[in-house]
Amino acid sequence: MQEALRKMEEAARQRIVKAADSAELKEIKVQYLGKKGEITRILRGMGQLDPKERPVVGNIANQVKENLVQALRDREEILKDEARQAEYTRESLDVTLPGVPLRQGHPHPITLVMEEVKGIFMGMGFRVEDGPELETDYYNFAALNIPRDHPARDMQDSFYLTEDLLLRTHTSPVQARVMEKMVPELPIRVIVPGKVYRRDDDATHSFMFHQVEGLAVDQKISLSDLKGTLLSFARQMFGPGQKIRLRPSYFPFTEPSAEVDISCVMCKGRGCRVCGSTGWLEILGAGMVHPRVFRMSGYDPEAVTGFAFGMGVERVAMLKYGIDDLRMFYVNDLRMLRQFR
Ligand code: PHE
Fold first, then answer.
1. Residues 244-285: pLDDT tens digits?
2. Pocket residues for ligand 1 (CB within 6 Å)?
C-alpha cells in the first residue's frame, strides 16, 4: 500500500509540473485529492491492513496529500509568474528601437553673421541699439541732411505708407535717434543691426536686406579711428591677414565719405572673378559725421566729431561663406540652410 501511494505521488507530480494552466491543475487536484480521488480510494482499503501498520500508512497518506497540495500551489505560482512575464513582454517598450527624430531649428546664416558682427564691435566697446523699421521721413532722410527734393533720395527709393511714413531704407536714421536721446553725453559708441527695405528687384538686390550701422561720437575722433576700427573688424571677421582700403565717396550725412573695401577673401588680393580682378571687395559705406547732422540732433559740431558706417550683412555673409547668389538667403532652400547647423 505504501508503494502504491508513492507511485501515485510520483505520477501526480509528473502531471502537475506539466500542467499548462490552472484549469488543468484543478482537474488534477480533483482526480487525486477530491472526495472520490485516488488517495481516498487507497485509504479506503486501509481496513484490510494490520492495525499496527495503519498509523504508518495513514501518516504516509497525509504526507503524500500535503506534498501534492504543495506541488499544486508551486505550479500555480509558476504559471502565474509566466503569465505576468508574458504580459510584460507584450506591453513593454523596446527602448533600443530608434526614435522618431525631432527636427531642431537653428539660426539663419544672416543671423549668425549679424551675431558675429555684433560680438566683434561689442568687444571694442560698442553697445547695441535698435530702431523702428517703419520710419518717418524726418529720421530716414531729413535728419541725415537729405532734405525733400534732394537728388540723393533717388539712391534709396523705398516703400511709402503715407507721405511721411516709409519702410526705412537704411539703419542710419538710428544715428539721429541715438544722438537725440544721448545729447549732451559723450562718448557715443553704438552699433545698430537691423532690416532695411528698398525698391530694388534685380537678381543682385533684394527688397529687404540687413545692415549693421555703427556710430562713434566723442571729442577728437578722427578718420584714423574709423580706419583702425574697421581694420580690426575686418581682421577679426575674415582673418589676420586682411587689409582694407577707403575710396572717396559721397553720402549727404558724412563728410568726408568713403566706400570701404576689404582685400578679396577668395584670391587674397591677387585678383579673381569674385573681385573682378581688382583684389578688393566693397563691404560698407562710412565717413565722418556731417556737421549739419550733429547740429540737427543737438550736438555742437565745433566741440565733437564722430564717425559712422553702414555695413551690408548679406554681402559679408556671402564673402564669409562663399555664397554666390544673394537670393539663396531668402528662398528657404533647406539644402543650403542646413549647412549652418
Ligand atoms: N546708410 C548708408 C547706405 O545705406 C551707408 C552709410 C552709413 C554711409 C553710415 C555712411 C555712414 O548706403
1. 999 999 999 999 999 999 999 888 889 888 888 999 999 999
2. 170, 172, 251, 254, 285-287, 308-310
Question: Relative to the CA of 172, which ligand 1 atom is closest?
Answer: 1
What kind of fold does domain 109-340 have according to CATH? Answer: BirA Bifunctional Protein; domain 2 (3.30.930)
- Ligand 1 atom with least separation from CA of 196: 4
d(CA 198, CA 289): 23
Whether residue 218 contacts residue 306, with contact meaning beta carbons closer than 8 Å, is answered with: yes
| Domain chopping of the chain, boundaries | 2-91, 109-340
Q: DSSP letter string over 48-91?
A: GS-TTHHHHHHHHHHHHHHHHHHHHHHHHHHHHHHHHHHHHHHH
In testing the pocket of ligand 1, which one of 172, 195, 229 has its CB within 8 Å of the most ligand atoms?
A: 172
Between the CA of 250 and the centroid of ligand 1 the distance, in Å, is: 10
* β-pair type (165-167, 134-136): antiparallel
Strand partners, 245: 261
Q: What angle do CA 195, 200, 204 make, to 5 degrees?
A: 90
